[in-house]
Each structure stands twice: as C-alpha cells, then as structure tokens.
Design goal:
Blueprint: E1 3-7, E2 11-15, H1 21-31, E3 39-44, H2 52-58, E4 72-81, E5 84-89, H3 94-97, H4 99-109, H5 120-143, H6 152-159
Parallel strand pairs: 1-4
Antiparallel strand pairs: 1-2, 3-4, 4-5
C-alpha cells in the first residue's frame, strides 16, 4: 500500500502508511521539510481530514486504516490559537489546482456561525427607529412650502 502526498510547489512524494502513526508523521515531516514542532494533517480529495494526531493518541500500531491505497492527500498545517484551529495548505497553489478543497479548508478554519437571534430590546429599538423615520418623513413633507390657494373673497375685497 502507498499514498501520494502533495505539498510545496507542486511537489509530490510516495509514502507507505503501513507503519506506526509516529513513524509516518516523522517521515512526512522530514521528507516534506516541515519542522518537528509544526502540527500537520492530511486532506483527502473529498476534503476530509485524516486526523493523524488522533491516530497517535489512539495508539494504533498501523496508520493505514484511514487511507485509500494509491490515494492522493494534501499536506495541511494546523495553527491553533485561542481554542480555534486554522487549517493552512502546505501545497502552495491549492486554490488554483483544487478550488473546492481550498474552499473546504476555509470553511473548516472559519465555521459559519448562525446569526444571533434578536432580543426584544433589539426588536423595540428597530421599531422605534422605523417610527422615527416615518414621523420625520411626514414632518418634512408638511414643512415643504406648498402653493397657497387664494381665497376668492379676500381677492375681491382688495380689488374694490
């Protein structure tokens, strides 16, 4: 069994995942020139992470379970900050070569949050603003000078 890992400037290397997860990770980092302290993972062509760190934690003897024979995987760097994880492709042109995967990484890094439901205070403030707009429009219409209608009795009294 072997897999292909893409990284860098359109580089790709073959790896044998039929080994312990620690050996596989060390081998990937060494051959792909990734510093040992950097946390990495692999993304398959459907946009699913292989969660290599979980393989290490579970203490599996062989890491070939999550991989497909002759599968192609993309090297990903995980950047953790304040309980948030940002996924960064280590393939320099992922957006050009696989835009759907780049979009998937972006979605995983910045999950869309549902908009907060408005509170009753928000509802009343919106209603008040709407009412103020309505009254200000009405008052501006009244304040505009409208042509006066001449009273015929006054006009006839002036002529006399």
């Amino acid at each position: 069994m072997f897999i292909t890992i893409k990284f860098g400037d359109d580089e790709q290397l073959l790896f044998n995942p039929d080994c312990s997860p620690k050996i596989l990770l060390d081998n990937i980092k060494r051959r792909c020139h990734v510093p040992q302290k950097v946390e990495i993972d692999l993304l398959d062509e459907e946009g699913e992470l292989k969660q290599l760190s979980q393989l290490l934690q579970n203490g599996l003897e062989h890491s070939c379970d999550p991989f497909t024979d002759r599968g192609v995987y993309y090297l990903i760097k995980l950047e953790r900050k304040d309980s948030k994880i940002k996924f960064v492709s280590l393939l320099n042109n992922l957006a050009e070569s696989s835009p759907h995967l780049a979009a998937k990484l972006e979605d995983m890094s910045c999950p869309r949050q549902s908009e907060p439901r408005p509170t009753s205070k928000d509802k009343w403030s919106r209603m008040a603003k709407k009412a103020n707009k309505t009254t200000s429009v009405a008052s501006s219409v009244k304040s505009k000078k409208q042509p006066r209608e001449r009273d015929s009795s006054k006009a006839s009294s002036r002529v006399k």
